[in-house]
Amino acid sequence: MINRLLCPPANKEPVKVARVLHYLYEAGSLNRFEAAYKLHDTCLNSTISTIRNLHKIPIESRSESIKGYQDLPTICSRYWLSRSSAIREIVYWVLVKKYGYIPLTDDKPAA
Hints:
Blueprint: E1 6-7, H1 16-27, E2 29-31, H2 32-39, H3 44-54, E3 59-67, E4 73-81, H4 85-98, E5 102-103
Antiparallel strand pairs: 1-5, 2-4, 3-4
Helix pairs in contact: 1-3, 1-4
């Protein structure tokens, strides 16, 4: 399955869980510092836990070392969605049906 693009709902700002899930779906991966800067999520580990437990969506992760304060190494987790088309299909429909995201492409196969 090729990623189908989604647009956030126009009538309200998406909740944090939806913003993170949408970012992972369309943009790839995040660590806690990127999430704070890009999505205003200051507790990404809790958001990921909510996605895993509430929606039963497996989010993959690994530890990474990045430059922190005074260039000292800081260990954090990087999170991403599986490339599995079945999981990506579930995420797509969770964003559309639960959080009101709008498909930007036609879901019908080309003739």
